[in-house]
Amino acid sequence: MTPIVAPTPTSRLRRLRRSAALRALAQENTLSVNDLIWPVFVRDGVALREPISSMPGVERLSVDLVVKAAEDAASLGIPAICLFPYTDPSLKTETCEEAWNPDNLANRAIRAIKAAVPEIAVMTDIALDPYNANGHDGLVRDGIILNDETVEALVKMALVQAECGADILGPSDMMDGRIGAMRAALERAGHKDVAILSYAAKYASAFYGPFRDAVGATGALKGDKKTYQMNPANSDEAMRLIARDLAEGADMVMVKPGMPYLDICHRAKSTFGAPTYAYQVSGEYAMIKAAALNGWIDGEKAMLESLMAFRRAGCDGVLTYFAPEVARILRRG
Ligand code: PBG
Q1: Residue 165: which CATH number?
Q2: Residue 54 lies in a domain
Q3: Is 151 within the bounds of a domain?
Q4: Which of 202, 225, 269, 289 is catalytic?
Q5: pTM: predicted TM-score of the whole model, two decimal places
Q6: Is residue 237 part of a domain?
Q7: Residue 202 dihedral angles phi and psi, to the nearest 5°
Q8: Range of the domain at 306
Q9: For residue 281, how far is its CA from the centre of ligand 1 (angstroms)?
Q10: Is it the case that residue 1 has pLDDT exceeding 80?
Q11: Residue range 122-139, pLDDT digits in tens
Q12: pLDDT tops 80 at residue 217
């Protein structure tokens, strides 16, 4: 598109910024509750909520309270909730069997939400890190992250989650070939309508720090994730990953983190036109909250502006810890 702009004064671009009414008419993008996916942290126990110090306002919730949170989300019109378990360290092993235990925390939470609030879409996380004694997303042998063995484990996770009623599976592991393997296994098992939202372009990022506190992986992680998560310097590689995951059967794709990677979001949407999501990750949330709590920025305005940026970049939706807060503001109008 080539903009046609007459010289001033024929054109005065401020004309359409003159009043709220004219600004509303000329607004190009919108943010709606329909664009939100709410990530929540699940812990063991009953009636327990536990604050996460690096994510002010976010708590780990026991399953009964996660159900309550899903009810609140549904009543606010939030279409989907995404579950991340805080696994008891005693259940973490090098072989990660807890990941595909039908009665693990995440799977119990899926079943409980689907029983109580069937209308909300439940999204899951597929990766081994919450269950892995060494904090990695894949199985590790002699310091190497094993790709194909990990994919087999991830397929087991996917099948159990689908069995529990998950609507959207979210593989966040960055192994090669996992989308195709999961899609084939889901078809074979009769779960033909379970959607896959692939974390297709996930970067090895410093912005995941608070999340690792939230799921108890901070101390556990040995080394870094650079042999499977992407180099922040790369953009063409993100397009190859997205093309590959769509070809293998992903229904939706994600770019993660969000704000530092808006160029990738834009390129992904304009290249493929597929349903595209950004994950506004824990570190992005923490930065806005921390600055707001210090009185350095207006937290509410910064939150709304950051979310609108994803829409402007072409995202269909955003995974954001702000989801309920934003939903309340949007409802207030
Ligand atoms: C790991 C996973 C991570 C996040 C979601 N899934 C962290 C990581 O890769 O180390 C991060 C989300 C956030 O920071 O909010 N499977």
Answers
A1: 3.20.20.70
A2: yes
A3: yes
A4: 202
A5: 0.97
A6: yes
A7: -115, 125
A8: 31-332
A9: 8
A10: no
A11: 999 999 999 999 999 999
A12: no
